[in-house]
Design brief:
- With 486 residues, this protein is an alpha/beta fold.
- The chain folds into 3 domains: 96 residues, 3-Layer(aba) Sandwich (Udp-n-acetylmuramoylalanyl-d-glutamate--2,6- Diaminopimelate Ligase, Chain: A, domain 1); 220 residues, 3-Layer(aba) Sandwich (UDP-N-acetylmuramoyl-L-alanine:D-glutamate ligase), CATH 3.40.1190; 152 residues, Alpha-Beta Complex (Protein-Tyrosine Phosphatase, Chain A).
- Helices cover 32% and strands 24% of the residues.
- The protein has 16 helices and 26 strands.
- The strands form 5 sheets. Strands 11-10-9-12-8-13-14-15-16-17-18 form an 11-stranded mixed β-sheet, with helices on both faces. The chain has a 6-stranded mixed β-sheet with strand order 19-20-24-21-22-23, sandwiched between helices.
- α3 runs parallel beside α5, α4 crosses α10 and α10 runs antiparallel to α11.
- The radius of gyration is 24 Å and the shape is globular.
- 52% of the residues are buried.
- About 1% of the residues have low confidence.
């Protein structure tokens, strides 16, 4: 239990009615979860306005209300707090309620179109290898030390986020690495947090169904760096032209990592094979089990984060040599008959191109590359033809299939993908909307030495069809299809 006056500390208040010396059992922004002595924060969502549920919250036991517009009827024994922006205020209140856990951790946020999960997860794994207790907030999972919990959002809501951070502090964690999605930043889910640093990986075509324009998408990412304090570090990809954009108006200490350009944390690929890469990282050579230029950049970012957090360079590169690939990120196995299957989360044109170009560099020349790819429903439609175009240009054979069709017809999505295929490449692809059958077909087509890339879903263990999530695991289906006797 906390007192309302303490929870309101630092919140920009326009007006208040009633006593702030009242008990608060929890901070709630969903009226369905209100209990006795809840503090209800009325936020305006994209679909629902919490102001419509203020009376419902009071009827269910809320005794304090935070809102942008005061109700016409002010009830006795209820405290009303008026604020300009309930979304950002919610972050401040949640942080105060959980006793500001982010200030008790070294909290590092990673943002970008691609690489967020990999960089955040590898940072957690590296610090764990170094004997440090760390937390992770990612698309794949939430980790408190080594204990795993399911993740529902890339960036959780402010209440859940601070609750997780508090649990990390109580478990003895000293570090936390978290993904900061453009949605999460724009919706101010990270408001009120005290960041030690932030990382920008890259930016490319994605989420334009939400942000509407590419400039809006860039500005959403940039907002993370705009809010960093002077004591924090800002580590950006110098090979990415928008890296400089992130640093404009940021008070944080500026640092860079790169593969192509000179940078504070420079990486160079010395050898590149299917089972790993030899890198020059800083002043050190290191062998890593990860492959691809994008992973070289990811490791440069991880190396940079560790060094900026004060870790010894030699110990860091030793830890890097022990890191495994993150689930669903260029995760591969070889079948009994010598076919290599790769599962990757690549669901944007840029990510798919990076993966296919990486495979091209490690091919010996005699094998076929068969790519299975789809696009999600109820999402940015403009990337669909681009995904099919890239797949057919950089693969020997392509199977266009469903991803998470959600509430759309998967065949209609595939038709929109087909529109991007150049006429002279139309003999390269098949359309099989059933994803399991698509993977089985690729397994039948593949011969010894061939490579099968299954792109788009990565770590996901479900397929969302007409509002229902059905169990589906690309890696498991691939293993069953390529090793049917196992």
């Amino acid at each position: 239990m906390k007192l309302l006056k303490d929870i309101l500390y630092g919140a920009p208040i326009i007006d208040s009615r009633g006593s702030t010396h009242v008990a608060v059992q929890n901070v709630i922004f969903d009226s369905r979860k209100v209990q006795k002595e809840s503090l209800f924060v009325a936020v305006k969502g994209s679909a629902v306005d919490g102001h419509l549920y203020i009376q419902t919250a009071i009827d269910q036991g809320a005794r304090s209300i935070v809102c942008e517009i005061l109700p016409d009827q002010i009830q006795e024994n209820i405290t009303y707090i008026q604020v300009k922006d309930a979304h950002s205020t919610l972050g401040v209140l949640a942080s105060n309620f959980f006793e500001n856990p982010s200030s008790q951790l070294k909290l590092v946020a990673i943002t970008g179109t691609n690489g967020k999960t990999t960089v955040a997860s590898l940072c957690h794994n590296l610090f764990t290898f170094l004997g440090k207790k760390a937390g992770l907030l990612s698309t794949v999972q939430i980790l408190i030390g080594r204990q795993s919990f399911p993740a529902t959002h890339t960036t959780p809501d402010p209440v859940s986020l601070n609750q997780h951070l508090r649990a990390m502090v109580e478990a003895g964690c000293k570090y936390c690495f978290m993904e900061a999605s453009s949605h999460g930043i724009e919706q101010k889910r990270i408001a009120g947090l005290d960041f030690t640093g932030a990382v920008f990986t890259n930016i490319s075509h994605d989420h334009l169904d939400y942000h509407k324009t590419f400039d809006d998408y860039i500005l959403a990412k940039k907002a993370l760096f705009d809010k960093l304090p002077a004591k924090a570090f800002a580590l950006v990809n110098k090979d990415e032209k928008h890296g400089k954009t992130m640093l404009l108006h940021s008070k944080a200490k500026e640092h860079t990592f790169a593969l192509r350009h000179d940078a504070d944390f420079k990486v160079k690929i010395l050898e590149h094979q299917l089972n790993g890469m030899l890198l020059n990282l800083g002043k050190h050579e290191v062998w890593t089990k990860l492959i691809g230029k994008f992973n070289a950049l990811n490791l440069a970012a991880v190396y940079g984060v560790a060094c900026l957090l004060g870790e010894d360079e030699l110990q860091v590169v030793t830890a890097i040599s022990n890191l495994q690939s993150v689930e669903g990120r260029f995760q591969y196995f070889q079948s009994q008959n010598g076919v290599t299957a790769i599962v990757d989360y690549a669901h944007t044109p840029d990510a798919l191109k990076n993966v296919l170009e990486t495979i091209e560099k490690i091919r010996t020349g005699g094998e076929q590359l068969i790519t299975i790819v789809g696009c999600g429903g109820n999402r940015d439609k403009s990337k669909r033809p681009k995904m099919a175009a890239i797949a057919t240009q950089l693969s020997d054979h392509v199977i266009l299939t469903s991803d998470n069709p959600r509430n759309e017809n998967p065949d209609a999505i595939i038709e929109e993908m087909e529109a991007g295929v150049e006429m002279h490449l139309r003999n390269k692809y098949l359309c099989i909307s059933n994803r399991k059958e698509a993977i089985k077909t690729a397994a039948r087509l593949a011969k010894k030495g061939d490579i099968v890339l299954i792109a788009g879903k990565g770590h996901e263990k479900y397929q969302e069809i007409m509002g229902e999530k059905h169990p589906f695991d690309d890696m498991a289906v691939a293993q069953q299809s390529l090793n049917p006797t196992v």
